[in-house]
Known about the structure:
With 392 residues, this protein is of the alpha/beta class. The protein contains 15 helices and eight strands. The radius of gyration is 20 Å and the shape is globular.
Amino acid sequence: xxxxxxxxxxxxxxxxxxxxxxxxxxxxxxxxxxxxxxxxxxxxxxxxxxxxxxxxxxxxxxxxxxxxxxxxxxxxxxxxxxxxxxxxxxxxxxxxxxxxxxxxxxxxxxxxxxxxxxxxxxxxxxxxxxxxxxxxxxxxxxxxxxxxxxxxxxxxxxxxxxxxxxxxxxxxxxxxxxxxxxxxxxxxxxxxxxxxxxxxxxxxxxxxxxxxxxxxxxxxxxxxxxxxxxxxxxxxxxxxxxxxxxxxxxxxxxxxxxxxxxxxxxxxxxxxxxxxxxxxxxxxxxxxxxxxxxxxxxxxxxxxxxxxxxxxxxxxxxxxxxxxxxxxxxxxxxxxxxxxxxxxxxxxxxxxxxxxxxxxxxxxxxxxxxxxxxxxxxxxxxxxxxxxxxxx
Length: 392
């Protein structure tokens, strides 16, 4: 087992009506003024925003609002938020929504705390020295941003999608009420389940084979998501299934399933370029890419994929040797993606990827030929291009 540093400072308030505690949580931060940051119509139409505004008013907490965050959150909205926060002297950010809203709030926080263009932080030209404090009321179980150190922003001038991970941006608190996810469209629910699985698989597929407890935690988490995602296909208002998925989303990306081993993250890097270029839903893009990545790399450690097949996908150990089990496990996961309405190829996203686009995606993913990606198997720009081709 590798040395590791596990840090999870976020206070989690979980359960029915948990959002009623928002004002109490913010008051404990001793802030002067809050930005309530949110996405589109759902937060308004559900009445959630009104309940939060009412609780802030009752507690005498001053606030301003900024909505309009979209999936694959945009840098232009981040700039708008920074300008508003500076004008209004905001010192706390409350994200009401899913991972996109939380990521946007974190980016605004970075922009407020650092004397540079915030994009310079995401493009790695500068390193952050702080972030305005952020809290979250989660409405979509997916990205895990409510407990992670990361955020991802899309530059809507260049259409580059870049991530930034530091402990500065970890949420002070995360309010998790599974009931707030009842009305999510089936497609969004499925995208979220894929993202949760992928956050675990990115850490699970490794050449480090001596972190048994971490493996067992990861496998249990993935089995739980597989089971409850299927439940939600037919019973979208099943509280227990929603609760299991929501908690899994937080645990999948707070570092727990990576303790003692190195992760991979190639599928995420490949997908970031895909959704940056075509603005596809992140979870759907991951599902479209993953099988091609897996078949391209599995021979690096076929036994690892064989274990996944048996302990996560339920394939009998007697089904074949390590290579046969590995391939059957990959196919079983793709069958699951189809069960919940997710794609397993880029064409299923409605995109006909050209040779030139494959080359361009790989070029951007390799940061213009300056980096490799992946930990399970290190991928060059040429490898990336080939995976995009296979995923078509």
